[in-house]
Amino acid sequence: MSRETDDLMDLARRQNPETEEDLEDLALGEDYALNPEYVPMVADALDRGDTERLRDLLGALHPADIADLMGFLSADDREELLPHLDPEALAEILSELDTEIREEILEHVPSATLAKALGEMESDDAADVVDDLEADKRAQVLAAMPDVERAAIENTLAYEDETAGRLMQREVVAAPQFWTVGQTIDHLRRESDELPELFFDVYVVDPAYKPVGAAPVSHLLRSRRETPLAQIMEQVTEIPVDMDQEEVAYIFDKYHLISAPVVEPGGRLVGQITVDDIVGVIQEETEEDILALAGVSDAGRDAGFLGIVKSRLPWLLVNLVTEAVAVTVIGPFQPMIAKIVVLVMLIPIVSSLGGNAGTQALTVAVRAIATKELNAANAMRVIMRELAVGLLNGGAVGLMLGGALYLWQHDWKLSLVVFLAIIANLFVAALGGILAPIVLERFGRDPAVSSSVVVTFMTDFFGFLALLGIAALILL
Amino acid sequence: MSRETDDLMDLARRQNPETEEDLEDLALGEDYALNPEYVPMVADALDRGDTERLRDLLGALHPADIADLMGFLSADDREELLPHLDPEALAEILSELDTEIREEILEHVPSATLAKALGEMESDDAADVVDDLEADKRAQVLAAMPDVERAAIENTLAYEDETAGRLMQREVVAAPQFWTVGQTIDHLRRESDELPELFFDVYVVDPAYKPVGAAPVSHLLRSRRETPLAQIMEQVTEIPVDMDQEEVAYIFDKYHLISAPVVEPGGRLVGQITVDDIVGVIQEETEEDILALAGVSDAGRDAGFLGIVKSRLPWLLVNLVTEAVAVTVIGPFQPMIAKIVVLVMLIPIVSSLGGNAGTQALTVAVRAIATKELNAANAMRVIMRELAVGLLNGGAVGLMLGGALYLWQHDWKLSLVVFLAIIANLFVAALGGILAPIVLERFGRDPAVSSSVVVTFMTDFFGFLALLGIAALILL
């Protein structure tokens, strides 16, 4: 009964969610994701032009949740929502949005509003947004910003996309190595307004502004005032400003870094990268790999209809061409197939099994390369192991299929053909699955992008050849 | 010339790497990954039993790199290497190792050494290691540990695997809400030895030890001593102790958290999770998805030969069964195929294109579900968009294939058959690719694990039916 009463009260509250607290409860599910029911409530308020209700609804959300909400709204609703956001909220939301929606939204935000919002953001986030602007608007927006902020953004944009320079924030806390803990804390209290909002390390620098160590803030807090910084500082891992963001993420993950100093070629400290930026990079990079493995070029959930077609059609056409080449193997065997028609049903099975086994092997290899767990030191051992797995799995699956076929066709020769063809094809799948990524990587190509095409072609071409060739030898 | 001299000097240095600095240069590549050449150097020293050389070689490596090295060595070499590691090094290396290698290594470490090493680790890492031990050894090792440490490990193990309770460290820094910044800093200096090695927030708690806010240490450092904690503290996002680690990672990523308090059902503070643990969780969870999508059950690079077979064979057998069912569609059409043999070459093409288009759609859907970007609020819009993409891509690919076929066979009816079959199949692929993950998720299954099987079956079954059915209608 208590349970039912709860449900009823819950229902009543949802139908008339008046207080701010109620809205906050309603906004997020138990998993902290935006509640699906909340989206039509916002859409409804937008339709009715109910500004007050909208302010309450948005007020119950964290900017990250408003960014999520944007993704669930239709493009029209998104455009209508924009004028209801003040520049500070807009700044935070823009930093959180996926590129596609951000580009779409940026078209509708007036340059003056945008210039104000950019001023609220950290230099790396602001640069990302400016990078998404079209040339005309970019010039307008930058012209409307104060000189210092514009310069910071332009400096950041001078670094290549997806490098440490683009990822870093320029705001760092540095102290000379001869300072004590007390001097450092006094300095921080004095300069409080100039400091980054959050920081985790004070970088200890030499007179040339090169980092010689880092004092974690928790160590500063617990040390006595007279302790020299040099005594509590720890070794730092310097990140070169032109390092690829994937490498940066690897280093953070490997050494469990919280923040790291970014240095110019001469070794001078120019910024810092913090681990919360790295979480985003890791998501981005593995997401790229997952989509590339599935033959989807870079395009997010929020790409428009044509964006999605563009991200998938090229790979289907490549697949069409390679498959058309692979089936030419079948041509010369057509007379035999016309006689032994059951082969028609075996062709797709052999092709499908080969494709699956190849995908298994290549996915494991692609990930091992991405996480630097596969290189020259163990390549030979891994290759031999894959081939052995291919043979064993081929034997097992071949035995199953050959056996089942015998029960149906009572033709041991046909079963033998299938048994041998499956072993051959799963061996080829293993060979292609492990070699394609290794070779592509060696030649500087991204193994996640092209391995699938190569391996599918190999397993179909050799699979058809094995099945029909062995059939010709044994059955004719 | 200078380049050549460099190379020569490089070579000379590598052949006789005497100083510690030289070894450090040699150990890691520019990408901070372990240099492949370093592995045989270690293996060689192990073979020769050259303890001193081994100490130098290992001394040049960070524990995380020694863990990497372990992965590249053969199992025999790993076992030989163990006695050369002291308990502190062993503790750090064990925390870094992949499960498979760790389990293998743990068998060879004496219980007493292990007990000592566990004492050096944080409670969450130590619990992970103990969890990997076999029952007998676990009892021995725990018995050899001091009571307090044993209790901490047992408490952590009482929480389910992959929950916040297992991920958290019990060591936190908390302060009552009526304290000032100065009181807090004095307390930290006094209790320095009892504090966690690194911390990023001081949790402000009420008398019932429930967190009411968090003061970032960088805010403590820059605030005046007399400032009340309540004035600089920020809102906290509490993590329930039984929350799944995937949810925890979602929250950290969404709100850019550096650390978060973990609370018991009553709201009492019991530990904290820091972002560096989350980086590992994100890697783990996306890795699981990537492998599941490729039909590989959980098994890392370092699984033994049989482990790999076990991780892949079941999916191949499932694939065999579904494919065997799908090809039964071909059966009734065999007489037609014997007459129009070119259909044999079209069957694999239709199957392959359908499989690819399905994989594209399902991968995007699986990821959108995993990142909570696809739910009831936008499902209908996403489904309609996928179906439209399927029709358009089907039309484009069908036109290409039909056209090419016409140039070869000069039979417009056959081209029409292929054109229609491809459109139908890519429509089915889109339908299956988007619906399978959504439906599986709705029924509480992991869409990454089983979607591929469902979609491949659908595209093959309906692909064959479309091609041969339409052929029978138009060509016979």
TrEMBL record, chains A, B:
Q: What is its main location?
A: membrane
Q: What does the record say about its membrane topology?
A: Multi-pass membrane protein
Q: Where is the composition biased (Basic and acidic residues)?
A: 1-17
Superkingdom of origin organism = Bacteria
Q: Name one Pfam family in it.
A: MgtE_N
Q: What does this protein do?
A: Acts as a magnesium transporter.
Can you say what this protein is called?
Magnesium transporter MgtE
